[in-house]
Amino acid sequence: MKTGKIKILGVILLGSLLVACGNQSTTSTSGSKSSSKSESSSSEVVKITAVGSTALQPLVEAAKEEFAADNANYDISVQGGGSGTGLSQVNDGSVTIGNSDVFAEEKDGIDASKLVDHKVAVVGMGPVVNPKVGIDGLTKSQLIDIFTGKVTNWKEVGGKDQDIVIINRAAGSGTRATFEKWGLDGASAVQSQEQDSSGTVRQIVAQTPGAISYLAFSYFDDTITALTVDGVKPTEKNVADNSWKIWAYEHMYTNGKPNKGTKAFLDYILTNNFQKGAVKDLGYLPISGMKVERDADGKITDL
User: What are the DSSP calls for 103-160, one per residue?
Assistant: First the structure.
């Protein structure tokens, strides 16, 4: 009898263990499915195409690299082409973000009312020359005379006896628009060779005897000479209080409010870490570093 009871008890215990294991397996499988679903949701690909300003391009490319390192599901493409291209393409909805050095209101053919402006930095711009022209500064009137064709030899402004070679950005360039508005007091530069890329301009100025052009501070390096204007140096400090007047906001426009994925990328660029890190390291000014504010009409307000 004792043996029979022991066998029955063993069968009962074995059954209980099997049931428990079955329940545990079911729970584990259910948990795995839930986890997999969550991972699939978080890894949904977010595609962003940002096109436009070549002055802003290095900053957006840096943001792309940093942001994508922690967000592998993002597919971000950054292209140049100039502010006019960026604004027209975001205006017609063919790109996610239009990068621009100028306000959308300043460009003909753009419906600024349907675009949302995201100011991500400030960029200073200034005249640059081939290092061998023999000068390191000009007055505002001399600068205007050079770019409007009244002065054609460097000896007329204290440099070498050498012809001046003007290198312009293309007509749709925000860098050109900013330089003509604030550096030339609204005058139009004479017709000359035009380039679509700030990087190409820097290379040509560095390699061409007598060359002069204009670039964002982020493109300044020791292959070219950045000029003072009326004795004021092109520095971030002088941009911040408007002592140096050739500067612009860096805009990243979206057609309407950005979706959640795009907003996350734009918000990242405005984080303190990125603003105090890459923004400053690349030669831009954080928005928070400005002591003045300028609107689309050029009105200056102290902050």
Answer: -GGGSTT--GGGEE--EEEEEEEEEEE-TTSS-SEE-HHHHHHHHTTS--BGGGGTS-
Q: Which CATH superfamily is domain 123-240 in?
A: Periplasmic binding protein-like II (3.40.190.10)
Q: What's the burial of 124, exposed, middle or buried (CB within 10 Å: 0-12/13-18/19+)? A: buried
Which of the listed CATH numbers 3.40.50.300, 3.40.190.10, 3.40.1280.10, 3.40.640.10 matches domain 46-121+247-302? 3.40.190.10
User: Quick check: 11 pLDDT over 60?
Assistant: no
Domain ranges of the chain: 46-121+247-302, 123-240
pLDDT the model gives residue 171? 86
For residue 19, pLDDT over 90 is answered with: no
pLDDT digits (tens, 9 = 90+) for 196-226: 899 999 999 999 999 999 999 989 999 999 9
Tokens linked to 22: 């079955």
Alpha carbon distance 86, 97 (integer Å): 7
Buried-exposed string 142-176: b where 16+ CB fall within 10 A, e elsewhere: bbbbbbeeebeebeebebeeeebbbbbbbebbbbb
pLDDT tens figures, 230-273: 999 999 999 999 999 999 999 999 999 999 999 999 999 999 99
